[in-house]
Design brief:
Chain A is α+β, with helices and mostly antiparallel strands. Chain A is built from 6 helices and 3 strands, in the order αααβααββα. In chain A, α3 packs across α5. Chain A binds a DNA duplex through α4 and α5. Chains A, B: It comes from Arthrobacter globiformis (strain ATCC 8010 / DSM 20124 / JCM 1332 / NBRC 12137 / NCIMB 8907 / NRRL B-2979 / 168).
Chain lengths: 116, 116
DNA sequence: CCATGACATAGATAGGTGTGAATATTTACA
DNA sequence: TGTAAATATTCACACCTATCTATGTCATGG
């Protein structure tokens, strides 16, 4: 087991941006999360998965929503999975991605949160 | 007056990510905002400015917080200003940046918001 | 009017990123 | 076993970006 934290694990432990200056290590832990979201395709992917019924969607559904090659979608999904924004589950031939809503909630609290 | 909206103007008009799928134009409007935040230096700059007394800070203060050249900091500040996250005001020789907290609030609502 | 200090801009460069084509892997099923 | 379908991986490439150095602009004080 590694001591490395995924960005999603890092984000939960900081007071909001506007409360006190973010330390350099904190900032470097959080930036990858924002980077993962900071792409139109990945934003839509997150939104598609999160708003999909059951909170999950299979790759086949997602591919159809874009005019991009299947490997490109797969690449973006992998990125979102690696930072901890999407969970992955293989069921038969299909792979289902599920949004980690508590990760989004934590991130939102960090960006716009008022309280400690 | 242009019809182009800054990312900050775009973000205020969408329901949360998890509520319904983001449209492609919406996603392309919002991504630049996240991109602007998705850098450790800019995250710390935003945090420094937002948490500074009076909600503003002059560039001289900010430069000292990093081991980066002054032009590099200036570059990052410009980026944050262009997307609408920072306001800029010149007073004498000094330039003061001020965080647009309502922009952060809107962005947070979009990412982690539960309600419409 | 000139020198100095605060900040911005321009140009250059190394490294990162989004994309597609080709290919591999894995599962289901005949 | 072998074929087809769903998804991932590899490789290559054009474009973007974070940074620095050098230089420019602008306001202040002598």
């Amino acid at each position: 087991m590694s001591l490395e934290l995924t960005p999603v694990q890092t984000v939960a432990c900081c007071s909001p941006l506007t409360r006190e200056p973010l330390s350099a290590p904190e900032a470097e832990g959080i930036a990858p999360l924002l980077k993962a979201l900071a792409d139109p395709v990945r934003l839509r992917l997150m939104s598609l998965v999160a708003s999909h019924e059951g909170g999950e969607a299979c790759v086949c559904d997602l591919n159809d929503a874009f005019e991009l090659s299947q490997p490109t979608i797969s690449h973006h999904l992998k990125l979102l999975h690696e930072v901890g924004l999407l969970d992955r589950e293989k069921r038969g031939v299909w792979v289902y991605y599920r949004a980690r809503t508590e990760a989004l909630t934590n991130l939102a609290a960090l960006i716009g949160g008022q309280a400690k």
